[in-house]
Amino acid sequence: MKYKILVAVLFLSSSGAHAQNMFSMSSIHPADTLRGEAQEQAIRYPALRQASVTVNIFGSNEFDSDLHGKAFTSGKSQNARISSFFAIPITQWNGNVISATIYHTQQFFTISNVNNQLPGTLLSNDNFSKSTLGLSLNFSRTDAIFHTPVVYSAVFTGLSSNLQRIDRFNFNGSIAFWLKRTPDVSLSLGALIQIDPSAPIPVLPIVNYYRRLNESGLHLIVDLPQGVTLKQPLSKNAWIFVGSTFNTFASFYEPNNTSLPERISYNTVEVKTGPGFEYLVGKYVMIGIGGGINAIASASTIAKGDNYNKAFIKNTSKATPYGEFRISLLPFQRKKE
Q1: pTM for the full model?
Q2: Per 3-state DSSP, what percentage of the chain is helix, strand, and coil (rounded to 5)?
Q3: Residue 262 placed within a domain
C-alpha cells in the first residue's frame, strides 16, 4: 500500500502563501481605484504586490494523525517551501478592475522517527517534494451607498497538482464599507463569503483598520481575516515589523489504495507570528527577512466531493520555528493624478 503520498499531507506546514489562501482578498483594498496609491498600499499589504518569491524553512515538527478517529501514524518532519505569485492587470474602467494571478509552490519534506500504529501502514523515513499550481481571476468594483464608499469583489481560483486537470475550484465574494479614510486613520468593515469545500467557516468578517500611532511613523495594520501587524519605518527605504498572519492552504493527492478515496486533499489553517525586516531597493524591489513561530490551527484530509465536516483524517502537531526570505516587486503602474 502506498501511504507515503497520503501521510505526506498530514504534516504539511503550508503549500503556498497565496495560491490556496481562502482568506485571499486581493480586491478589497480600494486605494488603487480611489486614489491611485498602489505602491504605498503594496508596501503596507504584501498581498497587493506585483510579484513575489518567498522561501520558508521550518524547524523539526512532531505530528500525530488519526484515521476515522483511530491513531494512524506519528513521527517527525522537517519541511521547506518555495512559493511565488505574479499578478497580471487586465483592464480597468469606471471603478471596475479585472486582474489575474498565477501561483506556484514547491515543497520539500524530510520524514523521520515514523511510528505506524495501524496494520499495513507502510510509511517510512523518506525525502520527497510536492508542487501546487494556481490561477485566480479577480474582479472588484468601487461604488458608493448613501455616500459611503463600498468595494465589491469576486475571486475565482482554480488549483492543480499538475497541468493535466483542475483539482478544485474556489470562490470568494466580499463586500467592504469604508467608514473612515484620512492620511493617518482608515477603517472598513464587511463580510467575506467562501464557497470552498475545505473552508471551516463559510462566512468571515472583514475588519480593515489602519492607524499611524506616533510622529515617528509607527503603523498599526489590522487586516482581518488575514492578519495584524505593527510596522515601523527606519528610513525612507527600510521597515521593521512584528505581527501575525492567518492563512489556509491545500494540496492534492492520489493515494492509489482501494481502502481510501481515489482523490483527496489536505487542508490547513496556519498562524505565523514573529518579527521581520524589509528594504526597498530602487523603486520597485522589496527584499525581506523574517522568522518566528508557525502554528497549525486546523489540519484535515477530505475526499474529493466532500467538505470540511466530513474529513476522514485529522492531524495535530506542535508549533515550530521558521525562517523566511522574500523578494517582491511593487506595482509598476504610475500613481493617478
Answers
A1: 0.81
A2: 5, 65, 30
A3: yes
